[in-house]
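Consortium newsletter contribution from the modelling node. Members have asked for a concrete example of what our holo predictions look like. Here is one, prepared for the magnesium ion complex that several groups have been discussing at recent meetings.
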Amino acid sequence: MGCPGAGKGTQSVKLQEVFHLKHISTGDVLRGEIASGSELGRQIAGIINQGNLVPDQLMISILEKIVSATDKGIIFDGFPRTVAQAQALDDMMQRLQRQISQVIMISLPENEVVGRITSRRQCRKCGEILHVEPNAGSTVCPVCGGELYTRPDDTPERVKHRLEVYHQDTLPVKNYYQNSGKYIEINGNQTPQQVFKDIQTVLEKIK
Ligand code: AP5
Ligand code: MG
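And here is the predicted structure:
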């Protein structure tokens, strides 16, 4: 968990390698549906490009198919995002005879968010997340040579709206988990390497 720009994607990519997990970013899943050109994708684009959340029921039904198709441990990035989704995740885990091991909140002061997000580029091909300098010319991924793009919901106005949605709908999920004994907060306002080390220390204990 974490607000927009907290570093969920950056950390999940590293964690999936080191801990051999399947990384499921619900944002990436939705962007994949949009890229497929389907009717559902067109409806989703109208919602997420404005910075709003897709309906809980739709999100859960899309996710359950992906979760049931893997036996690997899973790192959810950006899910659950509402209390209803957290309750549905509990039900899903029970149905699939799985359990939640750890809930990690990456915290970040809000004055860091807009700068981080408007400097982000992502590779269409390999998914690499990059921080670029203002007016950076290069549009090529240094990892795979794929095309770098800016997400349509990454304008300063949309980011501000996403933060409002985060406060209203997602922060209550923190209360849902806080007394579960599985919830921990990590300081996201450090180098990505230090954030990773802190998360690694938590996960090593439950390995
Ligand atoms: P989603 O794609 O999940 O977006 P988000 O939650 O707003 O988070 P971001 O992806 O913007 O940030 P991040 O925390 O992953 O940060 P990153 O690592 O990229 O969701 C998008 C939309 O999809 C939602 O608004 C909603 O519409 C819909 N959606 C998704 N899930 C949903 C759900 N469950 N239910 C309903 N709707 C849903 O890093 C950001 C930048 O910072 C990068 O440039 C990176 O290089 C840099 N950075 C990272 N870490 C550091 C660090 N430690 N120091 C300095 N810079 C750093
Ligand atoms: Mg992300």
